Structures are given as structure tokens and as C-alpha cells.
What does this fold into?
Amino acid sequence: RFAYDPEEDAYTCPAGEVLRPQGGPNKDGLVRYRAPAKACAACSLRPECTDNKQGRAVYRHPEEHYLEMARARRGTEAYERAMRKRKVWAESPFAEAKRWHGMDRFRLRGLERVNAEALLVAAGQNAKRLLLFGGHGPKKPAQVVALRPQTAAHLGSRRCRRTARGGLKTRRNPFCNTLRCYLARLSPLPSAGEAASQTRISTR
It folds into this structure.
């Protein structure tokens, strides 16, 4: 096992030779540490270690110490408890976002747009959980109106037609389609008679 010394920024091999860094990080962000070729050539552990004529090399990421801290916590009670919580609280929402909200691939480009798309999906997931665990549905009248699917009267309005032409295309957006179907099950669309009465009231 190669021991790393953070103060010297060097590795020490089982035979006691020191491996020092050579150059900066490569394209993968790893720094190469290499032992002297002469020391490796005369080492009794060479057959079990390396056949490289330039000597044994070890690669390290500049932030490897974070991984070492995580490995040191592995197997502890706190680590196992955190992993159990992650399986329930983190992995399930990630799988839901990928399977039901089209998050296997972002449709937008750029850090700001990607963050906005991810936050939009997360907001939809939180809305579903609010309806599921928040007392079996919205309690305030404003929440009922805000979460109710669009009515036939609204779908025929000038503003809605203008939004459909130049705004968010809900037919092609899996997030909007999934959330709209979910809300429709909680609050079904009005019947033809109700929609007609709402249209007459709105035109008076």
C-alpha cells in the first residue's frame, strides 16, 4: 500500500521509496507521482509492483482527500444511517425525475437554463408531495384555484392562445404533461355543461 504525505505532497511505496509529483494535472485532472527508475529496477518487489522501465507511477486527484475522508467514515454507524436516508430521500426523487419528468437528458443548454429546468421539475415533485401528504389536498381556496387544471374557457382565451404560440409548449414538455395529468386526477376537468356555463359567465 502506498502512503500519502500531505505535507510533502509525496507517496511512499512499501519498499520505502518516495514517489514525487511530475507536472500538473492531466486531461482527467489527475497528477502523476513516479518513483525513480533506478530504485524500481533494483527493488526486490518489482515483479509484484510494475514492469514499467520508467518506474512505478501513482495517480492522484487534487481533491482526493475528500474521498479519503469518505472512505474513513465507511462502515461507521453514522455512515450507514446516512446511506439509508439517501436511498429513501435522494435516490427515489432522482429516479422519479428521470422516469416521469424526462430528466434523463436536459433539453436546455447553459448553466442558468439547466438550473431553471431542474428547479422546475423539483417544484413539480414538491407540489405532488404537498398534495399527497398535506392533508389530502389543498386547504386554502387560493391553492385550489392555483392548482386546478385549465378550464375550457381559459383554454380559449386570447392570452392562452398567445402563450401557446410563443410560450411553453406543454404538449412536448414531459414535466407539464405529467403534472397536469396528476392534478387532473385530483381535480377533474369540468363537464361540457359546466364549461359552457363558465363561458357564459365570463362573457357577461
Observations:
- The two ends are 83 Å apart (CA to CA).
